[in-house]
Write a structure and sequence with these properties.
Distance between the termini: 28 Å
Order of helices and strands: HHHHHHHHHHHHH
Shape: globular
Largest sheet: none
Number of domains: 1
Structural class: mainly alpha
Helix content: over 70%
Number of helices: 13
Number of strands: 0
Strand content: under 5%
Length: 265
């Protein structure tokens, strides 16, 4: 159980992140773009699950990881650079508890950003469309929390806040944009010789890829994945849950180990 200091730190982190202008700007942009997608789907009178849903999946896979990384990149290194980490750890709170509290507080801020974005799209959609878009909420939160955990790890590994900011930008471009291009490059180099099971494993091994494939399958059906060249099935429910748990827990746990072994000056 988290102690009194840990709970206070969670609340402090939530308040501080909700005042971050970059988080506010990206969250509002996500809400506006999601609303635009919802209005377009409504005016087109098309099947929301086949049109608006995949469009929102693409939008969320781009912006939600960015919000999460911006939220988390200074979690540890920011305290170290301000010379407040030693003071924080002098309180009756463990180092793992500090990492967990920072992750939880920023997770609450991320949840508010995701609810704002998808909630805006639901408000402008018809009743049936809103129900369909509700299915996006849980997986989109998982996507954001996975990148939030990655951001906390980057913050624990770096010594300067500017370095952490640069690294999260590289990670965002790498996992969201260039990862799929790398998989495509492997297919080109091997002249399509890679087994589909290997291609699928590479795709779902990336949280952004796992999110896209999972939601495209749920919203548009397996035929949409076949159109994209994915001909093998998704991992089972247990394997998918294990993948998400790994992305959520392992980076944050490693951050706690790093903080517990590193001397604080």
């Amino acid at each position: 159980m988290m102690g009194r200091v840990g709970r206070a730190l969670v609340w402090h982190e939530l308040l501080e992140r909700t005042r971050d202008r970059w988080v506010i700007v990206i969250s509002v942009l996500f809400a506006l773009l999601a609303s635009g997608v919802g209005l377009y789907g409504r005016s087109a009178e098309a099947d929301v699950a086949k049109l608006t849903g995949p469009s929102l999946v693409t939008l969320a896979s781009l912006l939600v990881p960015l919000v999460a990384l911006v939220l988390s990149h200074d979690a540890i290194v920011g305290e170290r650079e301000r010379n407040t980490l030693g003071l924080l750890l002098s309180l009756p709170v463990g180092r793992f508890e500090v990492v967990a509290a920072k992750f939880l507080g920023r997770s609450l801020a991320l949840t508010a950003a995701v609810v704002l974005g998808l909630g805006a799209a639901m408000l402008v959609s018809e009743a049936g469309g809103a129900a369909t878009l509700m299915t996006l909420m849980g997986p989109t939160l998982l996507l954001g929390l996975a990148f939030l955990s990655i951001g906390v790890l980057i913050s624990a590994l770096t010594r300067r806040q500017a370095t952490a900011a640069s690294v999260v930008v590289v990670v965002w471009f790498g996992l969201v944009f260039f990862y799929d291009l790398g998989v495509l490059g492997l297919l080109v180099i091997t002249d399509g010789g890679l087994p589909q099971s290997v291609v699928s494993a590479l795709v779902v091994g990336n949280p952004a890829g796992l999110y896209r494939v999972q939601m495209m399958h749920d919203l548009a059906g397996f035929e949409a994945l076949q159109d994209l060249g994915v001909t093998t099935g998704l991992p089972g429910a247990a394997a998918t849950a294990l993948l998400w748990c790994g992305w959520l827990v392992l980076p944050t746990a490693i951050s706690g180990v790093l903080l517990s072994r590193r001397k604080v000056i």
